[in-house]
Amino acid sequence: MQRHNIMKQLILLTVIFSSSAFGQVQPEPTGVIQTLPAPWPAHWIIAHDVAFFHMSDGKFYVLDAESDDAATRVKGIFNGAFIAQFTQATTRPEMYILETFRSRGSRGERTDVLTIYGKDNLAPIGEVVIPPKRASAMPTNYHLQLVDDEKLALIYNFTPATSVSVVDIVNREFLAEIPIPGCSLVYPMAGRAFASLCTDGSMMSVQLDENGEQASTARTGVFFDANNDPIMEKAVMIDGVAYFPTFLGRVVPVDLNGSEPEVGREWSLLGDGDEGWRPGGIQVTERDSDGRMYVLMHPDGYEGSHKDPGTEVWVFDVENKRRVDRIELQLPAISMGMTNDDDPLLLVTNVNLELDIYTAKSGEYQRTLNNFAAETVLMLYGAE
Amino acid sequence: MLHCQGCHLPEAAGFEGRVPPIKDFSGYFLHSQEGRDFLIRVPGVSRSALSDSEIAELMNWLLQTYSEGQLPDRFEPFTEAEVASLRDDPEPDPAAARELILNSLADELPLLAAELTKNN
To answer: Which of A40, A52, B4, B60 could join A44 in a cystine, given CB atoms 3.0 to 4.6 angstroms apart?
Structure first.
């Protein structure tokens, strides 16, 4: 059907071009810079094509997820080199990506950059060169985080010694590097602080001083067992609490609102008759504007199925620790995103690497976005 | 393999400029109390998912198998209790601590001094 439409469009275009060949053609204006609306409509999304098979030239597509018109739904594209990591501000029309460049493209001296993109015309409006040690890893939400009312950007480094680079994002300046020995990733805390997950099953937290240097650190007790039921690092943050699903389907809440992380009581995603269901995928958790938690789930889980596609999305009321909805996906999915409005769209990358759009609150399938040149969209974000 | 080779390479090798070697090197640390403590407080060991007794056993085996030549004349094996108390106090800045410890050891160990000069 799609293909048929494209063929019709091509034939139409051919007709237009041939009929205009009689001398009426005006030269197409070049160098035109268009401006996108501010703010972006709530159902615009950012799809990160990591270009898994040629990582040096990943792309971010800005798409209108409400549009059924393949020709106009792409609002813009910007680059993200070598498996970029993405985040966006809510208080400024800016997006931030972590990129790596080599002086000869795929080889040569390495430069790591935090690039700042403007939302009005998707131009790079600033950059901060950071130590060339950012973790080169598949994208997650916890390689790059903003804290302290979006004044500081925190970047996860891995050489394999682990550390966090602190950047003053307002003044576009690198401030400090904080060692986080034996720990990984950056989970945002209240104020100038962050937490990291540690291999022994604990979290460490770091408070930063006014210069971005380490002021103090703390450790939680051991709260997960990496050998028997590991937690997934792909937590979802709801009201300052990080909810970590475990491989076997428990969930561990860690409250990051205080000066130190506070581990809450774990609960199970599974109810009676749910035996064998497990969370799995690349980005497996999401939340909506009502604070409900979404988890990508698959049946018949086994040792090693934690990256398997989910056939359903389960929706949880985290206050009452119970499932409130169960969305059957029309095709299994590997990653999830959500728009940030009150009637949000649930965005998933399906197993054909197309984007399926659902109305989150009803679970109703809306449309599939494909044929926009992306190959491996692994992360999806609603516009802020 | 599961607990060390995320960073160190097979046969206890390092990765030049990034990961220190265990082979023909780790034994130097046992020439001072700080160095001995460091081997357990270093994050890959103190934060490992292994138990205290497993770590003691592993460290004693590693040192005698891969770095016997660098050990002091009287090698005192690590005990479970020693590991337990040290790993409770993980080293917060391993790179800086390592440099400090090795530089101070190098004053007394010409072989280590030569090794450090070679690598710089």
So the answer is: A40
Chain B residues whose CB is inside 8 A of the A131 CB are: none
The answer to whether position B74 is within a domain reads yes
CB contact under 8 Å between B47 and A159, yes or no, is no
Tell me, yes or no, whether B43 lies in a domain: yes
Domain A133-268 CATH (choose: 1.20.1200.10, 2.130.10.10, 2.60.40.10, 3.30.1220.10): 2.130.10.10
pLDDT at A198 over 80: yes
Query: From the CB of residue A45, how many other CB atoms can be counted at a distance below 10 Å?
Result: 25
Q: Around A63, how many Cα atoms within 13 Å sit in the side-chain half-sphere? A: 34
Nearest C-alpha in B relative to A203: B47
- Identify the domain containing residue B56 by its residue range: 21-119
Which tens digit of pLDDT belongs to each residue from A335-347? 999 999 999 999 9
Who contacts A363 (Cβ-Cβ below 8 Å, separation ≥6)?
Answer: A313, A325, A326, A327, A328, A346
Using a CB-CB cut-off of 8 Å, the residues of chain B touching A225 are 49
> pLDDT tens for residues B75-86?
999 999 999 999
Name every residue in A having a CB less than 8 A away from some CB of B: 159-161, 179, 181-183, 198-201, 217, 225-227
B38 token code pair: 């460091």
8 A C-beta contact, residue A246 and residue A224: yes
Q: Report the alpha-carbon distance of residue A366 to residue A345 in Å, rounded.
A: 9
Instruction: For residue A296, list its beta bridge partners.
Output: A313
Rounded CA gap, A377 and B69, in Å? 52
Query: Residue A15: which pLDDT band, with cuts at 50, 70 and 90?
Result: very low
Give the integer Cα–Cα distance in Å for A19 and A25.
10
Pick from A335, A239, A231: nearest CA to A287: A239
For A240, B40, B67, the CA distances from B30, given in Å and listed in that order, are 45, 11, 11
Domain count, chain B: 1
Angle at A215 between CA A151 and CA A182, to 5 degrees: 95
- Region of A62 (left: φ > 0; alpha: ψ -120 to 50; beta: rest) is beta
The topology under which CATH files domain A271-384 is Methylamine Dehydrogenase; Chain H (2.130.10)
In chain B, positions 62-101, which contact chain A (CB-CB < 8 Å)? 90-95
The ipTM (two decimal places) reads 0.84
Distance CA B29, CA A349 (A): 51
B90 contact residues in A (CB cutoff 8 A)? 181-182
> Is B4 inside any structural domain?
no
DSSP A86-155: EEE-SSSSEEEEEEEEETTBSSSSEEEEEEEEETTT--EEEEEEE-TTB------TTSEEEETTTTEEEE
* CB-based contact A146:A89 (threshold 8 Å): yes
Q: Is B49 on the interface with A (CB under 8 A)?
A: yes
> Residue B48 has what DSSP assignment?
-
